[in-house]
Structures are given as structure tokens and as C-alpha cells.
Design goal:
This protein is an all-alpha fold and 64 residues long. The chain is built from four helices and no strands. It is 69% helix and 0% strand. This is Phage tail assembly chaperone.
Amino acid sequence: MSFFKTAARLAGVAGWLLGWRPDEFWRSTPVELEAVLRAARGEDEPDAGMDAGELERLKGMMPD
């Protein structure tokens, strides 16, 4: 699935499940969205997040 389709799907989920408006979705970080969705599912503890290698990989993919 492309980035656009994935982002559109997640934006829809955030709007439907969380009541987020588009600007709230786009201002959130992936870690924030994950934490809120985990809490909505009743999971107590979120994962530690991404490590430095994953962050560098993402920076390389999206340098802006």
C-alpha cells in the first residue's frame, strides 16, 4: 500500500474512532497516534518506540 493510501486510511480511522480533525491527525507523530490507538484498544503499556536505526532510515526516506 502506498504512503498516500496508508495515510488516508489512518486519517479516516483517527477521525472516526478518535474524533480527530485532519489538522489534528497531521500534527500528531506516528508514536502519538500509536499510543492513542493502543490506549483505545485497552493496551496498558505502549512499546518503547523506534530505535535510532529506524529513525535514521525514516530520515533518509523523507529528508524534508
